[in-house]
Design goal:
- It comes from Sporosarcina jeotgali.
- This protein is an alpha+beta fold.
- The chain is built from 11 helices and 12 strands.
- The longest helix has 56 residues.
Length: 428
């Protein structure tokens, strides 16, 4: 009996010692990680200040290679800060946005002067100087108490978690996005290429070059008589497509057809614009017939804009599960007011097709959800991307509210499971 008691006591003591040892190791690892985070914060802060100085140095010279060292510093510091930022558990949207800005800044400093007029190069770096100075100030405020190395993992999480943090990481992310768009706007070709590269894997069977040409001729008989050439997308492209260029009498343009499935990725034709004489409904009927002939049978009309010569339509995919509109899956179509001919199409977002999941739909009493003065006029179902980039099923409500003698109209998107308000937009 004594032997059994001894063994039991020995096991308990051994387990306690083991647990204490493991807890101590975990604590040591957390402390080391906290110190590493603090070091990366300090490195990013210091190098961000150095980056600001390097950018300002490029503004000193008009000729020669006086700014060569500064441009090399920008390239190096941008890369170093990216490494520091990548190792921190920051808000994902902020981290991605900042990495993108730093990458474009570094690339521009190294290559921009070779490809850009000196005056334009100076303008870009002048704007970047102001933005980096502002970013440095905001970063200092956000990380003021993070460089000590004395924070616990829970404290780090509270400061860096995009949902719980006291600092507005989403606001800073939005600022950096504005910096990116103002300092280094995408060219039309870059934007088009980016959309094509972002397409998710297409599982449809491959079509031949001849089949792609036949589809082009069937859908656009008025401009497909004179094909200049048909080329494949560049080797290594994530989603190969056929690029068909054409010229026919007064029209010239191109069409891109995916090699898998033979979907129209984009289409554009340029021709002299005549006077706009057709009514909107007549043009819309032609556009919707064209979409059906092209195989886009699961879309509904969303909105239209217009200029002097053309209507610009937007159509949205409707999924089968809930008959909900998928706001991220759209097709844009440009049609001439003169005769209803299709002048342009972009179906990249539609072909990309968001991956959707079902979710619970709780019943919500809108009379208690909204203020008593708010009137719900319409309710639909949509899939919409939330702030984390996740597609969520939402109630789309059109509501009105009397505002100082006038009626304000809003569209409110409410998550069907969590009741979170994903987005509120005031209608013109």
């Amino acid at each position: 009996m004594k032997k059994i008691i001894f063994l039991a006591v020995f096991a308990i003591v051994s387990l306690s010692v083991y647990s204490y040892s493991i807890a101590g190791q975990n604590k040591d690892l957390q402390n080391a990680l906290s110190v590493q985070y603090a070091k990366n914060i300090s490195d990013a802060s210091s190098k961000l200040r150095d980056l600001d100085v390097a950018v300002k140095k490029t503004l000193l010279f008009n000729e020669g290679e006086g700014d060569l060292e500064a441009r090399e510093d920008i390239w190096r510091l941008s890369s170093d800060i990216q490494q520091s930022v990548a190792s921190l558990p920051l808000d994902q949207r902020f981290s991605t946005t900042w990495m993108n800005y730093l990458g474009r800044l570094g690339k521009f400093s190294k290559e921009g002067d070779e490809r850009t007029d000196p005056k334009e190069f100076h303008k870009v770096m002048d704007r970047a100087s102001e933005n980096i100075e502002s970013l440095s100030d905001q970063w200092s405020i956000a990380t003021a108490d993070m460089a000590s190395g004395n924070l616990s993992m829970a404290e780090w999480q509270d400061r860096l978690d995009g949902e719980k943090a006291t600092f507005d990481w989403k606001g800073l992310s939005a600022s950096i996005q504005q910096y990116t768009e103002s300092d280094f706007p995408l060219t039309a070709s870059e934007s088009d290429a980016l959309k094509k590269k972002e397409l998710k894997h297409i599982k449809d069977p491959e079509v031949t070059k001849e089949e792609a040409l036949n589809k082009f001729k069937k859908l656009f008989p008025d401009v497909s008589k004179q094909v200049i050439d048909t080329t494949d997308s560049k080797p290594g492209a994530a989603y190969p497509f056929y690029h068909i260029r054409f010229a026919d009498q007064d029209s010239i343009g191109y069409i891109d057809v995916t090699q898998k499935g033979g979907h129209i990725l984009s289409f554009l034709t340029e021709r002299p614009a005549g006077p706009g004489t057709m009514e909107l409904e007549s043009v819309r009927a032609r556009v919707e017939t064209f979409l059906k002939d092209s195989g886009y049978t699961d879309v509904v009309y969303e909105e239209v804009r217009e200029n002097d010569t053309a209507f610009h339509f937007v159509y949205t995919r409707v999924e089968k599960m809930h008959q909900a509109k998928v706001l991220s899956d759209t097709i844009q179509v440009k049609a001439a007011k003169e005769d209803g001919r299709i002048l342009g199409l972009n179906a990249a977002e539609y072909i990309r097709k968001e991956q959707l999941k079902d979710q619970p739909m709780i019943k919500i009493d809108w009379k208690t959800f909204f203020h008593q003065n708010v009137k719900v006029n319409k309710q639909d179902l949509v899939y919409v991307e939330n702030e984390h980039g996740i597609q969520r099923l939402a109630y789309a409500l059109t509501v009105t509210l009397e505002e100082n003698g006038q009626v304000g109209t809003y569209v409110v998107l409410v998550d069907t499971e969590t009741k979170d308000v994903i987005r509120t937009e005031k209608q013109a």
